[in-house]
Target: non-specific serine/threonine protein kinase
Amino acid sequence: MSLSAAANGISDNDFQNIGPAPRPPGAAFNKTKPITKYANQLDLRDRTPGARAGAAGHKKSGWVSYKDDGLLSFLWQKRFMVLSDSYLTLYKNEPTRNNEDPVLQMPLTTVVSVSRTQLKQNCFEVVRSSDRNSSASSSSTGSNGSNSDTSRRSIYISTKTEIELHTWLDAIFAKCPLLSGVSSPTNFTHKVHVGFDPETGSFVGMPSNWEKLLKHSRITGEDWNNNSAAVIQVLQFYQEYNGVGPAPNNSSTSSLPRLNTAQHTSGSMAKPSSDLVPQRNPPTPPSSQGRPKLQVSTAQQQNQSYQQYQNQSQPFSAKHPSPLQSAPSHPQATTPSPRQMYPHAQHQHIQQQQQQRGPYSPSAANKYQHNMQNPYLSNTPPSSKGLVAQRQAPPRPPIGKPNASNASTPPPRLHPQRPSPQAKPTQENGASTAAAAAMRQHQQQDHSPGYLQPNRQAPKKPDAMPKKDVGVTKQKRHQKPTMSNAEIMSKLKSVTINTDPTPYFQMIEKAGQGASGSVYLAERTKLLPYTESHRIEEIGEQHVGDKVAIKHMILSKQPRKELIVNEILVMKDSQHKNIVNFLEAYLKTEDDLWVVMEYMEGGSLTDIIENSPTNGSNHSPLTEPQIAYIVRETCQGLNFLHDKHIIHRDIKSDNVLLDTRGRVKITDFGFCAKLTDKRSKRATMVGTPYWMAPEVVKQREYDEKVDVWSLGIMTIEMLEGEPPYLNEDPLKALYLIATNGTPKLKHPESLSLQIKRFLSVCLCVDVRYRASTEELLHHTFFEMSCDPVDLTSLLQWKK
Ligand SMILES: Nc1ncnc2c1ncn2[C@@H]1O[C@H](COP(=O)(O)OP(=O)(O)OP(=O)(O)O)[C@@H](O)[C@H]1O
Model:
């Protein structure tokens, strides 16, 4: 019996609704502790000789409110604070004369953490370690831990204004060696202090580009109140996923604390492609870079994970209305007040990596940070309505027959992957010429400037209207390559045939359009000479007359060539009946790559769903037996990959192809990642948002089970025609994935128990209880699988 099944007392053959997950470990509930302990033990005065001398060279001073973390220190007191090069000193009065005794003097060398807190308005906490040798561990300990560690003491400073708070934070940050590092600061981490004030229901310190994103999203004031940490998480995710995002201050000289594309290359962000490329050094996790970091964990995050466990306890309960169907009209009606939920500090540090930029200039950055009023709490109508009213609802997905008002209705998918029906030549007898012309046109297009947009994936449908620039797109964007161009080319040459393939194939028609190139149906007209075919190992079996799919790519237009190397390597090494078979690849010129694969004439599962005779009716596009068959086949392919410790990371209907014999195969291996003994988890944000597991959206570590989640979402696509939240805007969809946990089905009452059980073990938020592919293969749901021939009706539309 499997671990996860055993843990729940269920058999592998009978996955049940697994019920509530165990309480997370106690530590997860450690909210910021009330300031009660150690009061009388505390004496933060530094009475070492020469302490006063340090204050002499002060750089910054001013009146603040102060309190320490002692029991009796329940009062905020007005103090004059002086930051010198060596000390942070507090005086009762402004030290105009030299005989003013400090109330407290803290050597800056002992400061291990400075972070914003919501204890009071415009408030921050300074944590000091009395153990000077413990500085190295400062990054992992912070305010939450300070009270339980007698070697750490906290003081709290509150300023009159937000601007003052930031200037103090910046100044202290710059002077404390354990925080800023006195050596050349390269590749260090800076934090944007974004907080949520439960009293006003507003964000503080919100970077303006985030504010803009949020304003234009459908994330409501109610959502802010319900889970402000998740709002911040998804904003961060969104921005990182999309590169810089729609930053208002887009000047490259701006010091806006935003993530830039370059910064990701050495951090944890998006380096999927080269995961399987042997030469690449494993990326260094951000936590091991640069100066010590302050803690990230917050009371709110912990609280949120608790909520999440709660959410997953009742998957697909008909008692809970789908979030897609109805939203509560007022937060008070359904949710506890923010205070009840987060009685203590609610701040979250957004870590940002800065690379090779020299000392950070936080003051400049602060100009772009704002307090963002919760529109839900303002006098104006509730934000949920207000915001929605200001923008158009995203268009519905193109359900129904091809050609149905495609021109006027842009596909709402953020990452549309479907080939345009128009891509198919209208006259069969002119197919070959049409395909050749299409290929020529494609090549011209490929070379035209701007064909591939940086940071975005090129639209797949040539006829699609331009998408609104709010989409989260698949992460194939301009990034600093993890391998040099020469390395990539050399790797590519070693896995391709360096010959012009034109004489060996006859192009028949264009079969589809991907982000990296076009896919053509072609016929093999001639066999490669023996010498050529044996220059690369394990070439696929070839027969004249074979129909093949050829993916044509212009290398100079690929933002990340290593993705392609990755894809070829995985496909070459993954011969399985449920994986699209790689045949060979040609490097026609240094810039012109042809990848030859087996042809899957049924097209993608997305096509099949959209063109199903029952789509748009009250019935599911596919029947449960058809779904069971397709999911089982996909699961077998995944299980094969997982056995090899490969995660696909982009499982969705677009990446599952069918042929006319009803064979089902997984494709698109550019985002695969290999897990090794040393790296049994990944943290890179990869995939397509609607199919992403919550742990990916929340940027937690993940493993193969992200594919199981995506498989569950793909099952919902076959049941409902689209993945959950597809009609939500991307940011809101991310928020819902992060906070809702297991998505609700639209019509659970019409589904069999088997499929609901199956979904509940795929879409289990707690990864420990999510089934593995091995476990899924024994699931009773698969017993209802149809025969491949029963898919015929679904493939009719292709004829
Ligand atoms: N082996 C194949 N047989 C038949 N059609 C295919 C095959 N591979 C791809 N296609 C068609 O071409 C379309 C684009 O495929 P491609 O793999 O390029 O898409 P993508 O994964 O979205 O793009 P990219 O990998 O460039 O991001 C698919 O949606 C599918 O319709």
Observations:
- The pocket of adenosine-5'-triphosphate is lined by residues 417, 419, 460, 511-517, 519, 549, 551, 580, 597, 599-600, 603-604, 654, 657, 667-668, 670 (CB under 6 Å).
- The first helix runs from residue 3 to 7.
- The chain has 25 helices and 21 strands.
